[in-house]
Amino acid sequence: MAASRLEDAAPLYARAADAGHVQARVQQARLWLFGMLGPADPAAAIEELRLAESAGDAGAGCLLASIALGGIALTRDGSIDARLRAAVEARHAPALLAAAIHFGRKSDPGDQALCLRMLGDAANAGHATAAALLAERLANGEGTAADPVAAAALRGQLAAHGIPPLPACSALPPFEAPAPPRQLAFAAETRPMPRSMLSTRPAIAVIEGLLSRDECRLLMASAQPYLRASRTVDPATGRPAAMPLRTSSDASFDPVAEDFALRCVQWRIARAAGAELVDAERLIVLRYEPGQEYRPHRDYLPSATIARDRSQAGNRARTICVYLNDVEDGGETVFPVAGVEIAPRAGTAVVFDNLLADGTPDPESLHAGNPVRRGVKWLATLWLRQRRYRDF
User: Fold this and answer.
1) How much is the pLDDT for 210?
2) 347/251 Cα distance (integer angstroms)
3) Longest C-alpha distance within the chain, in Å?
4) Which candidate, 121, 77, 79, places its Cα nearest to that of 99?
5) What are the residue ranges spanned by the domains of the chain?
6) Is 76 helix (H, G, I), strand (E, B) or coil?
7) What percent of the chain has pLDDT over 90?
8) How far apart are CA 319 and CA 274, in angstroms?
């Protein structure tokens, strides 16, 4: 695997799995799930993961729960809660992080206490992202009394590994669906969220309190190590290229590296836009420093790009952008034709259509990201195709 000789690794994993090595079975399932050996085969991967789960592997159960969020390869039902609960009880660090973020969205003091405890357990297990989220909660007194000494100690440990502190994030309290306190209940999160319509052509809406502070920080912390200069689709060639149109940095989340927490946030974002997770391209997280901007552009794709990238999914029907931090000045999202301007606010989402009702591109969907004048702007963007884009 380290030498990228996947064809040689696969039969060895199969032999080890047949001999009873559970982790080999999980790795074999991942090869099939993510299409590392050819076309993705979620059904074969699920069969292997179920065998690993029955042998007591908590990570296999957590991955099955993650697959079920897509609602295609597995049914999205109560098994998600059951599998995540089992992984939490097994002290599986990614499950602890996901459960912590889930409880952190709820205002009940017991839920907040669970969030902090699980972030601490995941951090003690070596999960750097959980440690980063815990440091921010301790520094700001979120769900507990502020503890600047403990926060500084955690930040110091993270800095020693090259992980910088996260930007300030004072998101509004997230929209809270009715759910029993101190219980995992992801099904409750499928309820529609209130939105404010700002325009009908193009259709533009704002959703306040979509993401919690923990979720905003999760996306920033996960993207930070992978940021690179942004590129834009060249309309002449249909290929990504560095262009002065867009001067930000960004990171794209490879599905291979996504855990349950990242999948769950993307699922929440897609559902808020009235779509399914399987309709979404890879999530993009962008960072704009002072002076950086995204000049007026449209999100729908040229035919050459569609032809090369899952043409059966069609064009980008809708875009949803979520602001992840507080911007000191600038960075507004502007729709010149509609006369709409939206100031960034952490946790708030902007949803807009790129196509007309007949599926043709809408030129009035022109939009831009104003230059950041002071501070830094972080933004998550999910482009939603007309039809299914992902394998699961």
Assistant:
1) 95
2) 19
3) 65
4) 121
5) 6-89, 103-160, 186-385
6) coil
7) 89
8) 11
End-to-end CA distance of the chain: 24
327-355: average pLDDT: 97
Q: What is the mean pLDDT of residues 306-323?
A: 97
Contacts of 353 (CB under 8 A, 6+ apart): 202, 203, 317, 318, 362, 365
Q: Sorting pLDDT into bands at 50, 70 and 90, what band is 238?
A: low
> Measured at the alpha carbon of residue 254, what is the angle toward residues 97 and 342, in degrees to the nearest 5?
80
User: Residue 48 in contact with residue 28, Cβ under 8 Å?
Assistant: yes
Please state the separation of Cα 163 from the chain's center in Å. 19
For residue 176 the two structure tokens come to 């809270």
pLDDT digits (tens, 9 = 90+) for 24-44: 999 999 999 999 999 999 999
Rounded to 5°, angle at Cα 249 from 246 and 253: 115
The CA R_g of the chain, rounded to the nearest whole Å, is 21
Per-residue pLDDT, 31: 96
Per DSSP, the residues of 244-258 read TTB--EEEE--GGG-
The whole-model pTM stands at: 0.95
**Which homologous superfamily does the CATH classification assign to the domain defined by 186-385?**
q2cbj1_9rhob like domain (2.60.120.620)
